[in-house]
Amino acid sequence: MDRITAAQVFVSIAERGSMIAAADALDMSRAMVTRYLAQMEQWAGARLLHRSTRRLSLTDAGDSTLARCRQMLELAGQIEVRQDSADDAPRGLLRITCSQSLGQAALAQAVPAYLRRYPRTAVDLQINSQAVNLVEQRIDLALRITNALEPNLIARQLGRCDSVVCAAPAYLAEHGRPQRAEDLARHNCLTYSYFGKSLWQFSYEGEALSVPVSGNLSANDDLILLTAAVQGAGVALQPRYSVAPLLASGQLVGLLPEYAPQQMGIYGIYTSRQHMPPALRAMLDFLRDWFADSPEWRDRIGVAGA
What we know:
The protein is α/β, with parallel strands linked by helices. The chain is built from eleven helices and 15 strands. It has three domains: about 5-80, Orthogonal Bundle (Arc Repressor Mutant, subunit A); about 90-160 and about 265-300, Periplasmic binding protein-like II (D-Maltodextrin-Binding Protein, domain 2, 3-Layer(aba) Sandwich), CATH 3.40.190.10; about 165-260, 3-Layer(aba) Sandwich (D-Maltodextrin-Binding Protein, domain 2). The strands form four sheets. A five-stranded mixed beta sheet has the order 4-3-5-15-6, covered by helices on one side.
């Protein structure tokens, strides 16, 4: 790990007496602050802090380490680093993770376009339906569709995700078509693997509405539920980018057009805004523009071009 950054983290913890305060001051995730502190203690070969419920305090080894860290930062600040445009160009490997559906619908097109623009970069795209620990798994960027980001995450909104309630014609022929959102409680709904019943959120005539739904199939991957819906297994709530081609082909039928499912955000999550590699900053900017303007994405979600 970067010793200069580790020294900055340790000095900030010591001066503020709190790892949370240090994370806020450095604009860094709490997990990354914890990792830098652990690395500092490994380098020092000693415990550097006494931890209590109220405040952190320095051990004897921490006192001497703090002095050395301050000397190191003072020396580093005296070094004039010559920057030129070539050094700032995006390059190097980015490790990115996202869900399978978002990977297929968006990143399979967006990443090759990014690599063409920045030929000195490379991307390792890892598909994962679960939230991952960025620090432990050495992930530079995680893409997540949500409206409930954990408060300690550093995230940037890159786009929006609309959803559609849908079912196959065969299912509707057998079970009927729901007329109101509340009717979904009596249908076999294909849900994500949460504990207990799922709540589907809607907006109807300007009012928020939550409908408890359940069914005989749940999964932690939306493409599994989408495939089951096409086969007539039940009613699904799916991202528009996944269902738009199936709606156009008639394999699925959109339901409840007067009820707008809750819109979600597409977020890029990363560990720190400080010392962000140019390749990561370029990727965030690129994806923000891609989700806003790319013809491939607009066609995918059924939005006409300007």
